[in-house]
Structure formats: structure tokens, C-alpha cells
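User: C-alpha cells for both sequences below?

Assistant:
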Amino acid sequence: MEHLLRPSRNALPPIISHGERATLYDTSGRDYIDGSSGAMVANLGHGIPEIAEAAAEQMRSVAYTYRTQFRNAPAEKLASSLVRLAKDKSKAFFLSSGSEATEAAIRLILQYWQEAGKPGKRRILSRRISYHGNTLGALTLSSDSRRQAVSGLAIETSLVPPCYCYRCPLRTEGGNCNGECATLLEDAIEQVGAHNVAAFLLEPIVGASGGAIVPHSAYFAKVREICDRHDILLVVDEVITGLGRTGKWFAMHHWNVSSDITILGKGLNAGFTPLSALLLSERVVRAIENGSGKVTVGHTHSGNPASTAICSAVIDYIESNDLVNRAAAIGEDLGKQLRRIGERFDFVGDVRGLGLLWGIEFVADRATKRPFDRSVMMTDRIVETAFANGLIVYPCRGLINANEGSAILVAPPLTTSARELELLLERLHRTFVLVGRQIHDIHRK
């Protein structure tokens, strides 16, 4: 009898044996190209000796200390590295997961306004296509099918339409505008009153819920100006995009716009240990230091020496191997190849992305952008067929009204070799051929 509770009682995935770079092997010897870095986590791929050695060295010394009793050198080093790379932050705080970090961000947002003498600012705005974590508060701020399970249980929020050029909320074609959709944020602020709004939380590139929706180049500058004018904190969720995934250390560096709080997770730990972080601007830090001087967020393992040492080794590995620039270079070529594949299949509506984070959206009619009927289960077809072909891609569902819309993410590790990228594209093309035949058969019935 099996004793591990699995995500689905009807699925029995193979047991993994080991991995090398972007390739995973199960216990039967079959190989899989990790085309989504798991859940956009394994940014360095698999089997990195340097990371294993850093973990072992720290654990031989001390694996755990509690943050109120001791400081520890690995956490201090990691914080300094992140502040240096971010360029616009002054402090870092560590947690164990992206969801925990979102929860902590909510607490710090509310604390900031209490310290600033404006406790009435408690409403946090987020966007209609978004996912910020699987805990209560994080789900409340997400626009995802899982949000329905916690509706009415947590903080009150308002949802703002995203900057989604393929399906522009202002019906502008092909992004031929100046990012005017940013004004929809101002509409939401006016509806609830700026004196009630504490923060605007959003992903720089909409990941798991949107299939790599990249904003208009003018969008974030407008959002920053609106937040400043209405005295609202700008909080960015870089759990997926942070630490090199998009070809910059932080996705926000593409637009040279600063946030007040940045949330990090997956890219920070690269799958080697559970660790997330909040990076705080001087504005936020100063309000707390000049007020109560206390930070009450955090959990048992926040900033433990073992995890922070491992993540310092992750950053060292990225820097020493120039993986951020590598992600930009090979990501540009990957995008071109994905678009070429997409052009050959009528059910591919849009291919978009930056660096090594790419989304492919599927449509029943390319001319009208009509999504597939939910009964077709297009995303599941693609993901399952790809897996059968030895390729792992990440499912994205509910791009439209959190219910309709089908897409996948292609986000291989930053260490992916040329041969692995070649196999990824070959297996993806084969997947599309097979799914195309299935769709054709459905239409014939």
C-alpha cells in the first residue's frame, strides 16, 4: 500500500532516478527534457556538484539557528548579494516558499501604512490573470480557479485587468498603443478610493496563470507613476521571473522601474531548498525603523543557515557561469524557434516571452482568437502528449475570466545545452502534430 498522498488519486507518475542539466531520468531509464524546469523552479537544472558541496559544507557546521537568537553568516551574505543585484532595495527577509513570502508581504504592506499613520489604507489591488500562491491570503489576491475555495474568507481585494496585448482589455490591436491599459489601474483606485488602497500587487510577466504575458514596454512606467500619485505601494511578484529567468537578474530591470517590495522564490532557490525572500525599498524600511522598529513576519525556518548557504551558492553559480546573459541569448533563439513551430499549426494563437520564459496560447480559431471549448481539454492534451513524448511543459488554464483559455509555459533551465534545446523543439513539434490529429478527429465527429 502507498502512503504518500498524491495530487490526484487517478495519476501515478513515474519515479525519478536522477537528472543532468535539463534532462531527467526515471527508474526505468527513460529520459525527459525538463522543458519547464519543473514548475519554473529548477533554473540551474539538475546534478550541480557545486550546490551539493555548499549544502554539505554548511550542514557539517550548523544547519539551523533561530533568527531572534542568532545572526548567521550565510543569511547575511545572501541578503547582501540580493540587495546588490536588485540595485533599488535596502533590506532582505527570508521565508520558505513563494506563498509564505506573499503572506508576509501582505503583513508588511499593512504594517507600513500603520507605521505611516494611515491605517485606513488596507485594500490591496491585484490583477484578473494572476497567481501569487496557494495559501489563504495569497489565493485571495490571485485570479485563479483555486481562489473560489477561499472566496470571502480573507482580505478584501479588487481585480484590475492585465496588460494582455494579445487580448487587449481596451481592444487595441497587437500592442499598437502606449500602454494605455495602465489607466485601468487608476479606474480601480478611483472606484474604491485612494485613501483605502494600500498596494498594487502584480507579476512583471504573468506566469503560471497567463502563459508568459509580457507587458507593453510603457506599462510599468505608467503604473509606477499612478501608484506614486495616489500614494500606493507597488509590489511585484518575481517568484518565477527573478534571478535570471528572463535574461535580466530581475524582470523589472527590462523596464527600469523600481518596486517598493519584491517577492522572490523559485528562481532564488532553483529547487535545491525551500527558500523565498522579500526585498524591501528604503521607503518601507525607514517607515518601520522610525516607527515600531519591529518586524513580526516570519516562520520557524526563516533565514536558516543551510538554506541561505545553498541559495548563495545558486547565485554564485549563476554569476560565475554568466547564466543571466546566457538566458537572454539562447532565449531569443528559443523564441524564434517556437514562433516558427507555432506558425505551422492553426491552433497556436500566440507565442510570447522573454529570456527562457515562453508561453504558447492555443485557440480554436486563429482569426477570431476564439478559445477551445473546455470539453476539448486542450491544455491537458498538450501536456499529456508532450510527457508521453519525453517532454515536460507547464499547464496554463483559465486565461479568460479564470475559466476559459489554454496555454503552456516553456521554461527550460538556464543551463540547457544546445542538444537539449534541439530535443525540446523536436519533441514539442511532434506533440503538436499528434494533438493536431486529435483535434481534427474531434471536428470530424
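Moving on to the next sequence.
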Amino acid sequence: MASMASAALTAKINKPSFLDSPIYGAPLTTSNPTRSVSYKQPKPAISMSATPTPLPYDLNNIKFDPIRESIVSREMTRRYMTDMITFADTDVVIIGAGSAGLSCAYELSKNPNINIAIIEQSVSPGGGAWLGGQLFSAMVVRKPAHRFLDEIGVAYDEQDNYVVIKHAALFTSTIMSKLLAKPNVKLFNAVCAEDLIVKSGRVSGVVTNWALVSMNHDTQSCMDPNVMEAKVVVSSCGHDGPFGATGVKRLLDIGMIKNVPGMSALDMNSAEDAIVRLTREVVPGMVVTGMEVAEIDGSPRMGPTFGAMMLSGQKAAHLALRALGLDNALDDGSVKEMLQPEFILASAEDNEIVDA
């Protein structure tokens, strides 16, 4: 009897968990060496020594170099105002620093001759890409967007047709650290794009204000905005919300497009393909990318999978390059089919450019 009870207990312990079933995603552990955490760039060696690395200063006797408070104020003010002067007339303005906007800016920044201003209404750029979805940390990225992760050096756990980054913030912080170090990029966070500049039927820049001012127009007297002229505007405001989809909604308000149906219900398998395929220059001078594409075309939402955000941003960058008359990946013949009419959703036909 004892042996029978022992066998029953062993069988219960070794019974496969529901988490081991393929329908619940990849197991948390795997003996398959091809599914290890990996990326193409060389990994730095990790020291396993318990001996702390000597520091260049004595933590028991810290004394900072003296500074006047006015110097701190002048440094921040002078440099910020210099940036405002520099980017008052720029090549590309990107509205929204979520995953699509950051990917677009990263791709554009490869050309050191292009100046790129990023407008983000939040103090914290990154949009929804700090978490993978519903306050969960892991980020799922469907292939082939893992190639973009290889390029920027983000490690991931590779599965059959998707990869998983252990924390979404790893992607967001990595792309931001690489992007913001570029001398031709400036992020203006806590700044809103309140309106568009339109001249002769072409979007020619944005009307800006500090986000706290924009949020309090109803409680204060008139506080006029500022402006940034640009050769190309990329709108990546995301799906509808307090500040979402503001670019395409403004185009609708001023009669440059006919319809903004809003994104459709979730369907991951069609959503991501549609977002990248429909990323385009929707009116002269304005490219729409990311989930704002779903708003203008009524295509499905994708939920917590981020590959289309990255590749839509990349495509938007090359559309901006095309609009600037520069070499781009779309005109080499390899992906021209993405722009052909037969690939456009029927709902997109409702948004033909309205003659001014």
C-alpha cells in the first residue's frame, strides 16, 4: 500500500502543468539551446567576483565641487532656449514619443544631416511601451520585428515565431539612450502639439505649448502657443484618448480628410500587418504611423504585441526621407508593393485628400 501511495504521489507531482501546454505560450524554462536569451551584438562579459570594483572617489568623504545656484538656472535655461531656437525651423517633427515615434526618430537619426524634433505631451516619453500590457512587464514582439531588436542590441528570449523581452522598459530605455545621444535629435517632453501649421494644402509644422498649459486652457486666461515649422510632420499620437489620435482628428476638423472611423476590435494577426502596410503620407507633408493609423483607417487594434509599432515607425522614417527628396528603403523596389492601392483597406478609401 505504501508503494502504491508513493507512486500516486510521484505521478501527481510529475503531472504536466497547464502552463506547459502550447496553448498557454512557451514554457517558462526550456532545455532547447536555440531558445536562449540572445541577440546578435556581442554580449559584455559579466564578472562573478564578489569583490567590489574600486570607486574613483571615497564614499565616506564626499564633497561636491562648489557651484552657484544661478549657474544651474542659466545652464538649463540657455540650453533649452537654444534648442527652441534651433528647432523652430527643422526638417522633421515627430508628434508622440511612443514606440512608433521613437523607432521613427531612431531610423531618421541615422542621417546626420536631418534635424529631428520629438514632441511628447508626457514628462515620461515611451507611451505604452514601459509595460508589456495590463501592468505586466514582459514585451512580446512578433517576427520579423526581432531584427530591429538585434540592431539596437536588446536581448530577448527567442520562440518559434515571436520573441519576448524580459521587461518592456529594456526596449524603451535602450532605444531612448541611443536616440537621445544623437546630436541631430531633440526631445521636447511635457510639450503638446496643439494644432498643425497648414499652408496651401500642405502640413508645414506644428503649434506647440507646454502640456500643463494645454491642460489648463479652460482655467486660465489666454495663453498663446508657440510654433515649429517643419518640412515633414510625422504623427504618432497613438489610439484615441486624452491626447491620442490628435493629428488625424485635427485633419478631419479642418476638412483635409473625410473620415476618422476609429480603430476596430482586436485581431492581432491582421492588425499588425495592416498597421505597417497602411503607414503612409496621408496628406502632403504629414505621415501617420503607429496606432494612429488604426484610428484613421478603422483597422483592428493589436493589443500587447509591439512589432508593428517598431516597423511602422521605420517605414514612417523612410516615407519622411522620401518626402524630403532623399534616398530611402521604399524606393529601391523591394517594398514598393506596400504602397500599392490593392493593399489599402476599403475604409482607407474614405480618406482621400480633400482639395483645399
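User: Anything stand out in the second?

Assistant: The chain is about 30% helix and 20% strand.
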